[in-house]
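Quick note —
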Amino acid sequence: MMERLVGVKEAGDLLGWSRQKASVYWQRRKFPDPIQILSATPVWTEQQIIDYAEEELGMSIWRAEKRIDLGEYGEFDVEFIRCEPDEGWVARAEYVGVWHRPEGEPVRAVIDAQFMDPVEDDVDAVLNAGWDLWTVEEE
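Predicted structure written out below.
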């Protein structure tokens, strides 16, 4: 299977940053070396950005697939999760994907969830954590 490739916008999306912030980091050489530059546009593998997030920013980012029932608020299809663990534990995470609102079209969105109890820095633990507080916002 071919590796996923990302440009500045997609790298920013993975990190929870604007395209502009990701571009500034690239221009200041605070990003990994791209695998290719096309028409002055850097291209990385998605894994390079995930590794950068972990090694340089202390973040965990995982690709994940799960449909979450949000009750009266519809459903949410998770595409990836990002969080900032503290000594191997995660107290909150952002789930990025598609929100299926009860009355409308599916929209790109992010759920910001605070957990009832911290969980291990592990994709399965974070995917199955109980939420104490959460919000969902369109991207």
